[in-house]
Write a structure and sequence with these properties.
2 copies of one chain form a homodimer. The first copy, chain A, is an alpha/beta fold. Chain A has 2 domains: 242 residues, Aldehyde Dehydrogenase, Chain A, domain 1; 147 residues, Aldehyde Dehydrogenase, Chain A, domain 2 (3-Layer(aba) Sandwich). The first copy, chain A, has 17 helices and 16 strands. Chain A has a 7-stranded parallel beta sheet with strand order 10-9-11-8-7-12-13, with helices on both faces. Chain A has a 4-stranded parallel beta sheet with strand order 5-4-3-6. Chain A is globular, with a radius of gyration of 24 Å. The relative contact order of chain A is 0.13. Chains A, B: Belongs to the gamma-glutamyl phosphate reductase family.
Chain lengths: 411, 411
């Protein structure tokens, strides 16, 4: 394992030598190769699907694992889009001159070696590899065991393109050890690995955060709230609440809890009840809400739960202050929204809420790298440092200072 | 302990409510209080000095611990300077509008609760407290046991100012448990603590990095190199080499190893030998260097050593490529310099070296927040992520996205 990581680290210097145009060209070759060799990927995927069948994987997981011609084409297309992103390395972030004439430039550089730990979807393999290559990072991929054949087939195709271009295949590496011990070693090798990005269930993320000595950028849960203030435009409020819940309930930026201002509870709750009816959303509420509409009880545990399903907890709160307090206690720092026409209330909410994304009068569903205009997305970071919220390719870089002198010494 | 940290976390919301001018005013009150109550600080410090005497602390450590009127005045002055820094919170870092009219702003915000673990110098207590307060962060200070009385006296004075301004004293907190177990708990409380900054010896930093679940920004060692290329201006080269070593050998941005191009070794080494003579620098060299000048042998271990003393290892290398290779192997990613008049060689070095600061034709001694123009300095980060190199007050912030809508929902 150590030898493997050492090779990965060494190949960072090969990557640094590539010009922007060369990286683009190689990525386009990779996209073509994925397309041309789609049969190999589909055969490997068929093996994974057979195993999934035998081990009784849930149909949701099987759907995430499954590949067909269309999905493989989409993988190739995604690599092509990443190829065309603006070069993330070498951006001059700041620059200035100091008293003695030294010229200082803060310049974006690759992070180095990035380990990405993820689950089922095989397209993460090609996406993550392309994003890391574009940003001149060596990537170590550790996908789910259930997708091992698919991932190996994809990685092999990408590595063949590297080798054809006289580059070490370690630039896109699969972790050789798929076991928990393999992960355990990887996240402790801060000598060789510069960043770990875990994407997956809470258990995995907790484990990695607790045991890693390598810095971690988590892609954790989203327990998102929408607060409808007494000064809300009722039509906007209902449209936004419904959209935030039902447009795609299984994702991290979907709303899990709706907070309604006590001052408007009677009218608002009745309207919400009607609005959610056609979507068959399972509504649960606090005692006050249940006096107005006939819904299930929401327990303390419900308010702590990221359903990722068409279920919604509702709580009546006493104005924006209690809403802020509730979010502070139960929120996961992902995406939070207020619906109000009141300027001062909106400002208060925007400033007091500590989350990656805080919305006024919009659905939390917009928290997304593509929507934000970042191009392909690494994920949604729930870290507070380095990268927060939608993580674009620029977040796969760090910086160094270049200092240009003409013989200056310190007095 | 958990209760203590919970209180610290809770007081973050009080800090958020303060306007920039209020923070400035309170910091100026703190500076005045330090000055007015200098007697209390000096008395506490006398106790620490007595204990230091009894426990046979080294004279270097005693010097770092010692306070007099002048040093206490400097502490007050430093708080005053921090008070006048440009407000670090609320900077709009980026802003744009997306297709559907949503307006996105990326805005700097406090990190939250920051734990700072440090050693002897009591002025770090007031500096760190002021920097964190100015950036609206709650700080948990864990100083050295040998400075406990001084640190408690300083913290008490600052806390009294907080209380006088109706703020919770937990905004500037001293860790109640000074033992290793106290530190151990602190660095694992990611529920309440957002960042740990360890400043001190390698052992401490290694321990914190290995055991923390809270993100860590290290202030680790600086094993800095200067490479004198065959195309160097010899006068500049000698001035820079001497300055980087002798101007203040005990600090992290001082040079530890000098690399000399083989092509100029004879003339350059003789000149260096003469130039270092008046400073009584202990020179150690590789076998090739020792054929030219009569100096001690530098072992493999020497090239791995941060002397922090007036000692220099010298190695003759075969041009810029071997210099880069050597630095990659032995460098600590802090500050590295090349002396050359050759444009292409300079560019090669600037791009290939992965360090926080890479210099052309200047002394590594410039790696410093004050010199860079950041104002008071949190330290020199050897992290690759979040903050790298000289860490100014802006590095005590992170960001969130504020998104302004008018009822937008996702289709």
């Amino acid at each position: 394992m150590e030898e493997f990581l050492q090779k990965a680290k060494q190949s960072t210097s090969e990557l640094l030598k590539l010009k922007s145009g060369e990286k683009k060209e190689i990525l386009l070759q990779m996209a073509d190769a994925i397309k041309e060799k789609s049969q190999e990927i589909l055969e490997a995927n068929a093996k994974d699907m057979e195993n999934a069948e035998r081990s009784n994987l849930s149909s949701a997981l099987k759907d995430r694992l499954y590949l067909d011609e269309k999905r493989v084409s989409a993988m190739a297309q995604s690599i092509r889009e990443i190829a065309m992103l603006k070069e993330p390395v070498g951006r001059v972030l700041e620059g200035w001159e100091i008293d003695n004439g030294l010229r200082i430039e803060k310049v974006s550089i690759p992070i180095g070696v990035i380990g990405i730990i993820y689950e089922s979807r095989p397209n993460v393999t090609s996406d993550a590899a392309a994003l890391c290559f574009k940003s001149s990072n060596v990537v170590i991929l550790k996908g789910g065991k259930e997708a091992q054949n698919s991932n190996e087939a994809i990685a092999k195709i990408l590595q063949d393109v590297l080798v054809k271009n006289s580059l070490p295949k370690e630039i896109i590496a699969l972790l050789p050890d798929y076991s928990r011990e393999g992960v355990d070693k990887l996240i402790k090798m801060d000598k060789y690995v510069d960043l770990i990005i875990p994407r997956g269930g809470e258990g995995l993320i907790r484990y990695v955060s607790e045991h890693a000595t390598v810095p971690v950028v988590k892609h954790d849960k989203g327990l998102c709230h929408t607060y409808i203030d007494k000064d809300a435009d009722f039509d906007k409020a209902i449209k936004i609440a419904v959209n935030a819940k039902v447009q795609r309930p299984g994702v991290c930026n979907a709303m899990e809890t709706l907070l309604v201002d006590y001052a408007i509870k009677d009218e608002m709750l009745l309207k919400l009840y009607e609005a959610f009816k056609p979507y068959k959303t399972l509504l649960k509420g606090c005692a006050v809400a249940r006096e107005v509409i006939d819904i299930q009880e929401a327990t303390e545990e419900d308010f702590h739960t990221e359903y990722l399903e068409n279920i919604l907890s509702i709580k009546v709160v006493d104005g924006v202050d209690e809403a802020i307090e509730h979010i502070r206690k139960y929120g996961s720092g992902h995406s939070e929204a207020i619906v109000t026409e009141n300027y001062t209330t909106a400002e208060k909410f925007l400033n007091a809420i500590d989350a990656a994304c805080v919305y006024v009068n919009a659905s939390t569903r917009f928290t997304d790298g593509g929507v934000f205009g970042f191009g392909a997305e690494v994920g949604i970071s729930t870290n507070k440092l380095h990268a927060r919220g939608p993580m674009g390719i620029n977040d796969l870089t760090t910086y160094k200072y270049k200092i240009y002198g003409e013989g200056q010494i310190r007095e």
